[in-house]
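Hi support team,

I've been running sequence recovery on a batch of backbones for a student project. Most finish fine, but this one hangs at about 90% for roughly twenty minutes before it completes. I'm not sure whether the input is malformed or the queue is just slow. I've pasted the structure tokens below so you can try to reproduce it. Let me know if you need the job ID as well.

Thanks,
M.K.
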């Protein structure tokens, strides 16, 4: 009589673990981005109650996402589907708001003689971001921040402030 070999239960698919860890990394970044946007954007600051409600909203939504993450790891497909939809919605929202929402003034440096990034591509990208002040220079090459960080950052900060 042959004994039956115990069959190992199939493990979790690798893409479930990958999705889980991507969400674990993305959730704090999204929360930080939301808080920074709330505090820094807009000329007039809303009443304190708006901040309080926003914090409660962020905590509740984070708890929902963490709950869905746990359910996804336990094999619930619907949780995985909802998280995928939420991720796609987040990417679409972020991509559209990057170019359409008024932001505080920012500055960027474009290296005229950059050996890695085409100058016209940099200029086209910079033109799409509202309120971006551009410093076009040929004083430095691609690694201006690394080689002359204090000078480059000082110039960019001066552009933002003034």
């Amino acid at each position: 009589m042959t004994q039956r070999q115990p069959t190992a239960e199939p493990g979790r698919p690798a893409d479930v673990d990958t999705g889980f860890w991507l969400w674990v990394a993305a959730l704090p970044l999204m929360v930080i981005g939301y808080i920074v946007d709330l505090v820094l954007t807009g000329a007039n600051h809303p009443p304190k109650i708006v901040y309080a409600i926003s914090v409660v909203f962020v905590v509740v939504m984070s708890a929902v996402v963490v709950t869905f993450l746990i359910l996804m790891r336990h094999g619930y497909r619907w949780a995985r589907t909802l998280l995928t939809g939420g991720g796609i919605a987040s990417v679409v929202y972020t991509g559209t708001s990057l170019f359409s929402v008024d932001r505080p003034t920012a500055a960027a440096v474009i290296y005229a003689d950059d050996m890695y990034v085409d100058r016209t591509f940099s200029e086209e990208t910079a033109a799409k971001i509202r309120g971006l002040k551009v410093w076009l220079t040929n004083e430095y090459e691609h690694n201006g921040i690394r080689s002359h960080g204090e000078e480059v950052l000082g110039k960019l900060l001066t552009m933002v402030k003034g």
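--
Follow-up from support: It reproduced on our side and the slowdown came from queue contention, not your input. The helical segments are 14-40, 48-73, 77-100, 119-127, 144-147, 149-161. No action needed from you.
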